[in-house]
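hi! just following up on the protien thing from before. the input was this:
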Amino acid sequence: MGNYLVGINLGSINVQSFNAGGDHTCLLATSGYLYCFGSNDRGQLGQGHSLNIGNSANEMGEYLQITSLGIGRRVRVVTGGTEHTCVILDNYEVKCFGYNNFGQLGYGDISNRGDVGIQWVNISPSLTWERVKLLNISILANSILVLY
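and the predicted 3d structure came back as:
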C-alpha cells in the first residue's frame, strides 16, 4: 500500500477523532460537527434516510453532510457499533441512532433511529444532566457502555 493508498477526500474538514463501526465511519471534526459515511441501511449515519454515503461521486469532501444532532449542538465523543452510532453532545446529552434490534439504543423499544430523524436517549430517568457529566461512551457489537 504505502504511497499507493490514496487519502480520503475530506475537503476542508479538520478531523479531531474518528470511529469506525461495522461498515460505517464517523469523523468528529475540530469544530465539533459530526460527519459520517459508509453503509446506512439502518440509519447509522443519522442523516434521516437510509442511503449509503461515500460510494458515489459528489458524496465526499465538500459534499459530505454534517449529521444534525440539534440546533447549535456539538459532539464531544463519538463511538460506533456494528450498525449503530452514539454520541455525547456538548450539553452531555447522549444520542444514539441506527439499528436497534436488541434495544441497544436505549429507547425501551426495538425501532431503528436515524433513518427518519434522531432522538436522544435519557440514560436514567432519575438523573438530571446538571448532576451527570458523561465522561465516555463505548459500543461493542450490540451493546453500549456509558461512563459517568
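Residues 122-133 have pLDDT under 50 and may be disordered.
The chain is about 0% helix and 30% strand.
cheers
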